[in-house]
Amino acid sequence: MASVISSARFRAAFFIERMNSTADPIWHPALEARHAPLVETLERLLPCMEVPLHLPWIDAILDLKRRRGALIMAHSYQSPEIFHGVADVTGDSLALAQAAAECDSRLIVLCGVHFMAESAKILAPDKTVLIPDPEAGCSLASSITAEDVRALRARHPGLPVVSYVNTSAAVKAESDICCTSANAVQVVEAMAAEFGVDRVIFLPDRYLGAWVAQQTGIDLVLWQGQCEVHETFTAQQARHTREQFDAKIVAHPECPPEVLAEADFVGSTSAMGQWLEKTRPARVALITECSMADNLRNRFPQVEFIKPCNLCPHMKRITLPAIHACLRELKHEVHVPEAVAARARMALERMLAVGRHDKV
Ligand code: 13P
Ligand code: SF4
């Protein structure tokens, strides 16, 4: 119910933003024909009356993107009109970081949260990276500072520090290596072996950390950060969904351990897609951000996707009007001081060398 209410709130905000803008692109009949395949896709994923409202923005963004020579990247938690409508590169935080490092474009618009845009800038320092809303934060990233990491190191001398990418550039700069949920297990194992230790500092997500400790058998020093979206799921919700809908339960490792214990599969956002590819269940509940199911629904039309899901208020700050304004005015450029970026880059590049290890 909470996600239905917040979904309505976000949609209302979208329409109010539209009404207040004087530079709104306007719907005209030719748009339907110009974007016919996209209209078909969006009508499968969204209430059909919303599609004509999105189409003028999508058309205007695609035009601006072409003229600016920009590349638009969108995380899997972005709404379908962004994910399917305007993005050139889509995926999890690891895929976006890799794409930023490898792409040819000089201008990247990152539709995701701030730490993702920072990672892109760190890995592609000569490119201009814009974020449509600089206030798009993350409860994990804001749970820890660089000073906290230095204090942890002082308390546990000799232990390697593994930081989830959901951290600020300053925290990455204090870390030995980064990880995402797609490679956290392998990164922790690699660090324990390289440092010759049986304890590793893992931050800031205590739930992801607890899951990694369980998977690896390695003792982790944890930070008490949590994702405000995943921490609210309950084991009772998962059980109820399984029993009422006869659905498979797939959960992100940022969920509390008692939720993960109810899941048929635990994995990163990219691993969720791979698991569906392999398993093809009749019904599934993705215990994660709501747009994940919306975006996967297009790939798996035979699978029925069931709530519960929660909206990430930070991800949902990114809207089509915000992307349009960011591209039109070339605003909200992401800057990372080079002294910080150089050290954070080492931690990120070390992670990229470990690569992706989704286990399905
Ligand atoms: P991924 O690393 O799977 O993209 O997830 C990022 C995130 O913010 C999950 O809440
Ligand atoms: Fe951060 Fe959670 Fe939102 Fe992911 S879903 S960006 S971890 S607040």
TrEMBL record:
The keyword Transferase applies. Iminosuccinate binds at residues 75, 93, 164-166, 181, 252-254, 269. Catalyzes the condensation of iminoaspartate with dihydroxyacetone phosphate to form quinolinate. Keywords: 4Fe-4S, Cytoplasm, Iron, Iron-sulfur, Metal-binding, Pyridine nucleotide biosynthesis, Transferase. One of its GO terms (biological process) is 'de novo' NAD+ biosynthetic process from L-aspartate. GO terms for cellular component: cytosol. PANTHER family: QUINOLINATE SYNTHASE, CHLOROPLASTIC (PTHR30573:SF0), QUINOLINATE SYNTHETASE A (PTHR30573). It is found in: Cytoplasm. Its cofactor is [4Fe-4S] cluster. HAMAP family: NadA_type2. It comes from the Bacteria. It catalyses: iminosuccinate + dihydroxyacetone phosphate = quinolinate + phosphate + 2 H2O + H(+). InterPro entries: NadA, NadA_sf, Quinolinate_synth_type2. Its EC number is 2.5.1.72. [4Fe-4S] cluster binds at residues 138, 227, 312. Binds 1 [4Fe-4S] cluster per subunit. GO terms for molecular function: 4 iron, 4 sulfur cluster binding; metal ion binding; quinolinate synthetase A activity. Pathway: Cofactor biosynthesis; NAD(+) biosynthesis; quinolinate from iminoaspartate: step 1/1. Belongs to the quinolinate synthase family. Type 2 subfamily. This is Quinolinate synthase. Gene3D superfamilies: NadA-like (3.40.50.10800). It holds the Pfam family NadA.
